[in-house]
Amino acid sequence: MASGGLQLLGFVLAFLGWIGIIISTAMPQWKMASYAGDNIVTAQALYEGLWMSCAMQSTGQIQCKVYDSLLKLESSLQATRALMVAAILLGLVAVFVSVTGMKCMKCMEDDQVKKMRMAVFGGVIFIIAGLAALVATSWYGNRVARAFYDPFTPVNTRFEFGSALFIGWAAASLAMLGGSFLCCSCPRRETSYPPSRGYPKNAPSTGKDYV
């Protein structure tokens, strides 16, 4: 029962992490304009994401524009896109594999060892998906930080971390943590001992002597 509860907890955490990765990928707030300079502009807030850039007016109206051409984007942004999409696809595969290996599911009940190995394999895929998302968000955040502290970057074009980055970091951590819990349900090898041989019982004496 303890391993089944740990397995269920790992799947729930990993699934929530996968949902968070999807949300982080779709959000446009990967970086937001910084108003650290003297000329503070409060009329609008600028956001940039993996797929579009948005501007929010002081009235609350948001206008977004999808990037026109994929080839005109920076190679680092394209790589970040690819890593996040790969993390989503890997997470989808991990969901199906892990569900197959869950103890509460009816499929593959005949072979419990293979069933538990499926759960472990799903956990490994979740860990890989979390690592891909963690690399993508950390790489993007490093680029934002380097551009912010670059003295040659104009003050009015500096950006800070957006909320999508923090969601991505938390989601990647949940996916890896949940995948680790799933891997803890790996079946242990049981040592097989040869069956013990019973000692022959002495035949009861009948009191007759045979020559």
Automatic annotation (TrEMBL):
Keywords linked to the UniProt accession: Cell junction, Cell membrane, Membrane, Tight junction, Transmembrane, Transmembrane helix
Function: Claudins function as major constituents of the tight junction complexes that regulate the permeability of epithelia.
InterPro entries on file: Claudin (IPR006187), Claudin1 (IPR003548), Claudin_CS (IPR017974), PMP22/EMP/MP20/Claudin (IPR004031)
One GO CC term on file: bicellular tight junction
PROSITE patterns: CLAUDIN
Stretch list, region Disordered: 191-211
MF terms (GO), sorted A to Z: structural molecule activity
Listed transmembrane segments: 7-27, 79-99, 119-141, 161-184
Membrane topology: Multi-pass membrane protein
Organism the protein comes from: Eolophus roseicapilla
Protein name, entry field: Claudin
Stated family: Belongs to the claudin family.
PANTHER family the UniProt entry points to: CLAUDIN
Places the protein is found: Cell junction, Tight junction; Cell membrane
